[in-house]
Structure formats: C-alpha cells, structure tokens
Amino acid sequence: MSRLRGTFESLVSAGDAATAVEIAAEALPKGALLVSGAAENVSAEYGADSWLVTIKFKRPAPEADY
What pairing do the DSSP bridges indicate for beta strands 33-41 and 2-4? Predict the structure, then answer.
C-alpha cells in the first residue's frame, strides 16, 4: 500500500468494484473521510477477482487543545 497526501492504492480481492472500494476504505486512517474510490480490474495480471483500488480521503482537522 502506498500513501501519498490523502491518497493510497491497494490490491484487493473482491467480487466487484464496489466491494473492492469498501474493503480498501477499511484501511483509512482513524477519523479520515472517504472522498472517492476507484477500482480497476487487474485479474489478468494478479488472478481472479483482483482489483487495484485508488482511495482519496480527507484527513480530519487536528483537535485544538484548549
């Protein structure tokens, strides 16, 4: 999994694109909000039901310590 400023990619095994995005979104940092998710079928390269998922997320604002 690579993480770059609110984006990461993950190789996921799932029956369809929507499920692949849901599975990948489980790896979001605590409190992060999902902005978008896209899944590309890569079954030819990695085997049946393989998806390369790109997740974009928004990190939560830091909590103020008053």
Answer: unpaired
